[in-house]
């Protein structure tokens, strides 16, 4: 009996470790699939820069891009927030259209939640691909529903 | 967490896409046509052009709000919603508007003039002078606009503007257009459809709408080019700037006023 207890705890630890590894593997699998089928990203090995650079420096890229776009009117550079949304937004399985990309279980939102970094881009920028907001608003109006800002504010960290 | 991308059947999306495209061409051909027109700008804007507007008030019809509605649709202003606790009358004065239809009367003669009033895109804009963060700025091509990344929402520019052209976003917004970002706590105003400028299109939403109504009271163009239709029209008609006494050299000119 005295030996059985440590053995049981060892087995339990081994089980927990195995489950943990599987969960991590499943997470990696999921991260890989945040690319819209048929989008530009789906045809490429990496985003506009190698994946490692995108992970570390995407905020630098779009920060410099914003000066060029707002002040100089340059809209042709590869870095664009609208581009992130266009290629990486998920579609609702129930046919309700695109899901805002800043939700805590979506491409931008999930990683920012994990890293505990506020994601403020989508306070002002559309978290849906071009055309989605208009379509959603039209559908809301047709159904006679008011749009709820609470839904949009989900995950807003400030 | 559920991954919704994996359950999508590409064929179903193709069918939906085709349906949406068909619907779009049937319902709103103009909107979608303009979305694909033009190529994105690759070079920085320069002061070789200065964008401007001419408003012929004699053609501006009483009661017509086509330009206002077109502007609201183009710039996502119609996506604003009234907060539940806000009174109807207060909301009417608080919601963002880039164009206001104004009716002025000469008290001596009784003559009534209708005109759309928007940002006048001054050469020497008071809103830029007073901005403490450099958020309010004039682009090289004469468009006066707000860089929301820098705007802290102090509203000095709204105080400084003699034309009451700027609006403040008081509440969280439920939806934005990709081409016109918008968020609580920033000031904004007419930017002469800057997304259209940057894609090489030759007009603004309000000008198109006015022409569609058959009024043709608005004309958009380059104030620097002596041969542009705008400059030719300015040569032909007696026009004025609003509040000329302030010597702001506005980019929006009014005829018959």
Q: Care to describe what's here?
A:
The complex is a heterodimer of chains A (158) and B (257). The termini of chain A are far apart. Chain A is extended and about 75 Å long. The model of chain A is unreliable at 147-158 (pLDDT under 50). In chain A, a hairpin with a 6-residue loop joins strand 1 (90-91) and strand 2. Chain A has helices at residues 4-32, 51-72, 81-88, 107-115, 121-124, 132-142, 149-152; strands at 90-91, 98-99. With 158 residues, chain A is mainly alpha-helical. Chain A has a two-stranded antiparallel sheet with strand order 1-2. Chain A folds into two domains: 35-88, no CATH class; 91-158, no CATH class. Chain A has seven helices and two strands. In chain A, 55% of the residues lie in helices and 3% in strands. Chain B has 257 residues and is of the alpha+beta class. Chain B has two domains: 12-36, no CATH class; 51-255, Alpha-Beta Plaits, CATH 3.30.70. Chain B contains nine helices and ten strands. Chain B has helices at residues 10-27, 29-36, 66-74, 88-94, 126-130, 156-160, 194-197, 205-212, 229-236, and strands at residues 51-56, 100-105, 112-117, 136-138, 144-146, 167-168, 187-188, 218-222, 239-240, 252-255. Chain B has a four-stranded mixed β-sheet. In chain B, strands 2-3 form a two-stranded antiparallel sheet. The longest helix of chain B is centred in the first third of the chain and has 18 residues, at 10-27. The model of chain B is unreliable at 27-34 (pLDDT under 50).
């Amino acid at each position: 009996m005295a030996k059985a207890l440590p053995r049981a705890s060892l087995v339990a630890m081994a089980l927990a470790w195995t489950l943990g590894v599987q969960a991590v593997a499943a997470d990696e699998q999921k991260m890989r699939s945040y690319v819209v089928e048929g989008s530009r990203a789906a045809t490429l090995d990496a985003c506009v820069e190698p994946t490692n650079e995108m992970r570390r420096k995407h905020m630098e890229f779009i920060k410099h891009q914003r000066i060029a776009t707002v002040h100089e009117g340059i809209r042709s550079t590869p870095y664009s927030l609208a581009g992130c949304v266009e290629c990486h937004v998920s579609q609702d399985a129930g046919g309700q259209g695109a899901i805002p990309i800043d939700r805590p279980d979506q491409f931008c939102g999930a990683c920012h939640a994990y890293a505990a970094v506020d994601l403020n881009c989508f306070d002002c920028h559309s978290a849906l691909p071009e055309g989605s907001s208009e379509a959603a608003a039209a559908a809301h109006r047709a159904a006679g529903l008011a749009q709820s800002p609470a839904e949009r504010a989900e995950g807003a960290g400030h | 967490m559920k991954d919704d991308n994996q359950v999508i059947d590409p064929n179903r999306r193709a069918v939906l896409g085709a349906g949406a495209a068909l619907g779009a061409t049937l319902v709103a051909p103009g909107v979608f046509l303009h979305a694909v027109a033009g190529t994105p700008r690759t070079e920085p804007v320069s002061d070789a052009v200065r964008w401007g507007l001419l408003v012929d008030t004699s053609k501006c019809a009483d009661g017509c709000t086509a330009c206002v509605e077109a502007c609201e649709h183009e710039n996502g202003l119609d996506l604003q919603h009234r907060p539940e606790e806000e009174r109807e009358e207060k909301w009417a004065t608080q919601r963002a508007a880039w164009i206001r239809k104004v009716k002025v009367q000469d008290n001596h003669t009784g003559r009534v003039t209708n005109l759309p009033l928007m940002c006048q895109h001054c050469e020497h804009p008071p809103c830029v002078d007073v901005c403490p963060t450099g958020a309010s700025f004039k682009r090289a091509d004469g468009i006066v606009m707000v860089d929301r990344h820098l705007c802290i929402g102090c509203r000095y520019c709204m105080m400084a503007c003699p034309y009451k052209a700027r609006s403040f976003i008081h509440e969280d917004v439920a939806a934005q257009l990709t081409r016109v970002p918008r968020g609580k706590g920033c000031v904004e105003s007419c930017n002469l459809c800057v997304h259209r400028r940057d894609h090489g299109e030759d007009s603004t939403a309000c000008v198109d709408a006015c022409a569609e109504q058959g009024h043709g009271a608005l004309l958009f163009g380059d104030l620097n080019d002596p041969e542009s239709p705008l400059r030719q029209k300015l040569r032909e008609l007696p026009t004025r700037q609003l509040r000329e006494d302030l010597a702001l050299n506005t980019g929006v000119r009014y005829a018959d006023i």
